[in-house]
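pipeline stage [seq->struct] | target=Band 7 domain-containing protein | organism=Ceratopteris richardii | residues=221
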Amino acid sequence: MLPYVTRYEPIQVTLQTDEVKNIPCGTKGGVMIYLKKIEVVNRLRKEYVYETILNYGVKYDKTWVYDKIHNEINQFCSAHSLQEEYIDKSDQIDEIMKEAIQRDCTRYAPGIEIISVRVTKPSIPRTIARNYEQMEEERTKVPIATEMQKVVVKEAETLKKKAVTEAEKDAQVSMIYMNQKVNEKESIKRQQEIENEIFLAREKSLADANYHRVMKEAEAN
């Protein structure tokens, strides 16, 4: 005889998002911070529904999502400094949590698939937060100053190149002008030489003509 069904529980096998809020987290250095919200997108595979419910009940996600994320976050915080959690590894913590939860789920509850984990930026004491803000402001100023320095250097190089170009241009103009003057002087000199040659030739011609005239007159007498 088959047993009567006395209780019915709907089990979701599509994607679901579980939210864990206000998780306290003590860092390696002893600073207490709070994570406002962690979102875990997960799914229960159809073929593992019976096995998962049999082993962990219909509230399986309490064990493998809510409680597990608390445990993993606490381990992560206690092993890292505030600097690492708030700055250095802030962009890695989502993937670290996803891999940590999925690793144990694969081993003990293979029907649970962790799709993604989203961890919000932690809330830290106001005085410490202000220190980090000031550090961030100073860090932002450095590349700005560096870029400004690069611009100044670039402008100086541009002005230098422009000055060199102008100097070379002026030198070329001066050289052309000097060559022109030299050519003009040589032209005037050559013209004078030609005129002198013409004058001498004419004077020689006149002298020769006068000589022949005198000789003829002498012969006639």
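stage status: PASS
auto-comment: Residues 154-221 form one domain. The CA atoms of residues 171 and 177 lie 10 Å apart.
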